[in-house]
Amino acid sequence: MSIAQQLEEVRQRIAKAAHDASRDASSVHLLAVSKTFPASDVRAAFEAGQRAFGENYVQEGIAKIAELADVRGEIEWHYIGPLQSNKTKVVAEQFDWVHSIDRLKIAERLSAQRPEGAPALEVCIQVNLSGEASKSGVEPDEAAALAHAVAALPNLRLRGLMSIPEPAETLDAQRAPHARLRELMDTLRADGLQLDTLSMGMSADLEAAVLEGATLVRIGTAIFGKRTYTN
Ligand SMILES: *Cc1c(COP(=O)(O)O)cnc(C)c1O
Predict the structure, then answer these.
(1) pLDDT 10s digits, 26-42
(2) How far apart are CA 90 and CA 58, in angstroms?
(3) For residue 192, how far is its CA from the centre of ligand 1 (angstroms)?
(4) Residue 220 Cβ contacting ligand 1 at under 6 Å
(5) Is 23 part of a structural domain of the chain?
(6) How do residues 116-171 score in pLDDT, each as one tens digit?
(7) β-sheet bridge partners, residue 76
(8) Is residue 230, in this structure, part of any structural domain at all?
């Protein structure tokens, strides 16, 4: 199947899940995760109408942004991977969104390094719902303090929360962590933060995420195919 056809299938999955959840399909944004795939694949998806793309690795993302410079104004680039201090500058300069804020130091650097005159960098806080020390993301009980601190930074706009739950087989098992992220966001909103983005759901658990209120699903494999890692 072509990228255009796979993209259309993903759009239909979103539409059906939204219908099942009694939600408007337009309330679920599709982020096409293009990591490991060449710029030509991003362009194919772009030509099929896709406008938001997610990248996990700084150098790879920057290279693709450069290759698609002719349509830069029409694309929204989202950085969704782990972020180290020495890479924040280029991310602050080149990307529109960062989903993986998990400590204040990174957020402070992104805010300080956002170019003057650029719109605020849209950010989400990544929450570690599986409780494993090895996974990135802030612990749920530390999310509120981090969210308030990030929301106060001048050149960032805190939009919501992101998570990457452990893979699970059944729909109910997939729904549970997504429900926890939604409840956490509800708590933060009740606490006065203006948040509108729940970044959750990937190729295997898109339906569970939409049922639990995802406003942005991050889909790689179902659009671009299976990834092969070379490094
Ligand atoms: C790779 C990745 C995705 C996409 O995963 P698929 O299972 O290929 O849809 C989504 N979010 C993050 C943070 C990723 O790293």
Answers:
(1) 999 999 999 999 999 99
(2) 8
(3) 30
(4) yes
(5) yes
(6) 999 999 999 999 987 665 578 999 999 999 999 999 999 999 999 999 999 999 99
(7) 52
(8) no
